[in-house]
Amino acid sequence: MRGLSVRFLMPGGRRVAAVADAHFDVAAGECLALIGESGCGKSVLASALLGLLPANAQTAGEARLGGIDLLSAGERTLARRVRGRLIGLIPQSPAAHLTPVRTIRSQLEETVAELTGVRGQAARRAAAEAVADRAAFPLDHLDRYPHQLSGGLAQRAATALALVGDTPLLLADEPTTGLDRDLVDRTVDELRRHIDRPDAANSGGRALLMITHDLAAAERIADRIAVMYAGRIVELADATAFFGSPGPRHPYSRGLLQALPDRAFTPIPGLPPELGDLPDGCAFAARCDRASDTCAALPPMTEDVACHHPLAGHGPEHPRPAAPAPEDIRA
Ligand code: SF4
């Protein structure tokens, strides 16, 4: 993804910058967790990758997968080659994505027939049950309709549907919503197994972009973390360093972790800004205890953090050690 931006043109000529200049890679066999508060633009970014934005959206930049630029691809390419085949989606509102008048079994079998080479009713039935089991969906509920499912079961049905196509990229938008902690762990462990499992078509494994505000789930599954605030990626970090030592470097990322009950349990003061009314400088300044006059200018992404005064490691309080002289390297 290179400079991906999405803005909405609203009545009266107002413009809402929902995603601005997002820039990152996700490798095969890797899970990148995109975290941030609700309304920060995470799901808009996911919709942009699938060509599912409303008509008043404008996009810029590039998002490449398998030789296709997802932002400029036409609807025919997206429908026939991308959705379900190159990108599997676990949607944020599973109940709204399931067909209400068909059983889960029927929807799974149809998806198996459409996306895989499995032929014959018995084989399709077996494949549908296998993928339901992988998503922890109880087999004795397969003949139920979506309205007969709890929110958690609808979530698992949607996860099963997303796994059918065995896609090189799985896009999971809040995949643990409505699940209790045991099922959260089971769901993310299955997603992890899914991306790690090599086969002929995906010899390096699959990639997972998981959008979540469940930091415990992100810590359990992710290799890398991308933090989004007010439409911008403000930090990219190795997950172990982010959740452990030296910890996050952006003040907003630190605030997210300190808000957790098993850490400081201290909420970030204030509220995020309206995406349609962002300041010219750092959008976090009104909530930031490190803000200075410098922050009136938009901080560039430098060494994977967009902050004029980052924490720990490379910031002004903890300067990075000077590079060794060539003679020291030789020694
Ligand atoms: S740029 Fe300034 S206001 Fe923004 S997060 Fe960094 S220190 Fe805080």
Description:
This protein has one domain: 3-Layer(aba) Sandwich (Rossmann fold), CATH 3.40.50.300. Helices cover 31% and strands 18% of the residues. It has eleven helices and eleven strands. The strands form three sheets. A six-stranded mixed beta sheet has the order 7-8-9-3-10-11, with helices on both faces. A three-stranded antiparallel beta sheet has the order 2-1-4, with helices on one face. A two-stranded antiparallel ribbon has the order 5-6. The chain is globular, with a radius of gyration of 21 Å. The two termini are 41 Å apart. The structure holds iron/sulfur cluster. The site of iron/sulfur cluster (SF4) has 12 residues, from loops. Iron/sulfur cluster (SF4) binds next to loops. It comes from Streptomyces spinoverrucosus.
